Amino acid sequence: MRPAPTFKRPARHPSLVPPLSPNSFTRLSLSPFSLPPPIRPAIPRPTKPSRLPNPRRIRAPEGTRGGGSPIASRVPTPRACGAPQRKQRTTDKYKMAISFKYWDDCLDPEDMRLMWQDPIVSKEWTDAGEEQGQKVHLSRDPDGEAYLTQTEMMAVAAITVHRHFKSQLDPYMIGALAEIASGRRLFVDTYDRKTKETKVGIMQVAPEVAQWLGRELGYKSYDIEDNTNLLYWPLVNVYFGAAYAKWLFSCDDKQRTEEFVVRAYKGGKKKAAHKSTSPIFQRYLYVKENLLSMRQPEICHELTPDLEDLSSAEAQLIYWDSKVSEADMDAMWKHPDVYKEWIKSGERRGNVRFSHDEKKRPYLSRVEVKAVAEIIISRHLSTRGVKPEALAALAEVCSMRFVHGVSTRTGLMGIDYPTASWLSRDCRYRAYTVISVDDLYNPFASMYFGASYLAWLSQYEGREQSYEFIVQAYLGGPENVSLQETGPFWNQFLESLTQYQDPKKDHNSCCIL
């Protein structure tokens, strides 16, 4: 067995990342912003479940504050000038009996391959005496606590975003959140007597919140129901932490800013606007800026593996055939416009590639979007009168045609998991199965549930609705529509609609049904 290296792994930028000391768990200097004292998050009280028809409203489970509870280390943390000392019980006696010595103990072989494939991680590990094919030691601070270096943290964030939140979240945001949540330490537990919650791991995610994210929001890539110790695995913890951050961006049916999300993640939703959480965001910005200077953005988009050695998860980012059924692919090949476009670009049956932008985010061409809409309507919704041009225009507004969606909107049509589940369960739209949020990254499934929701909105409250109401309700929620004034959603829709209408025909009025 190869002896563990006794020397400390060098930092990428020594000027930006001072060595660890007994009074510091982070590799970043906290100057000029001091870490505020532990802030006791507010406990959000769930309101009454919103009545249908607004299936999009999802609230966090009672008594939880999500993945962003503050942590207090055993080493004293500098307080902001004049800030009162807060009491919070976060001692080692609450830690679970779990620990890893090697990266290989908490990562699958496929994930280890991706870590080695990252050139910056590979260099850092090699310089520290690690060898590919041998177990890689976790870094430890002077007190023996396992932690991730900034290089390792950014690789984990990039892999997670690339796999599960492509075009939705920024890996630098995830890396900075991990820094302010735990100092990038793997086995930090934070217990709060008031809520009786224990937040664990690198992103400080409560097991109850992770289970709620899987059960209610469809984040089921990792099953932790029977083994919450998996939350100590870096990729698992970052996955649920990122999912919670994404939920915060649209919590309470409002589009939230990055500042709100950061302050709510660390200090609780109710204190997101309180002056006590302002230093949290200032430190976050400082950390994020340092991460950007350490590792340029384009590097995080170069983790796509070689095409000849793809896992199923990686192939789904590249090939139509990995996401779409054979029947749906056959229908696409039979569509004359799609056939012409695919042949021209050199596509072959069984290996049709998605288009990718400069950040390697998969998206559909306008020809493909309209074809998917036409196929879905002709097969499943021909009696509902939904027009394919309208669906294609909505996809343009919702997701900019990205397969994974944009920001808080999920998939091509921006239909989230709770809405799709409700349409399937209560409205009996079951042509496509939706078990997890990943199912909505299938363009056909997303288009199907988008068309179903549009048809349902057309008869909202039991009466026929105007086109303007339907579009604004689809994009912003039926309870937020104001027919007294033309909203920006309607104008965006009309502008996008011109991209899909036949220029030879007269289009003096909008018709979506």
TrEMBL record:
Residues 196-273, 382-482 form the Transglycosylase SLT domain. InterPro entries: Lysozyme-like_dom_sf, Transglycosylase_SLT_dom_1. Gene3D superfamilies: 1.10.530.10. Residues 34-47 have a biased composition (Pro residues). Residues 1-89 are annotated as: Disordered. This is Transglycosylase SLT domain-containing protein. It comes from Sorghum bicolor (Sorghum).
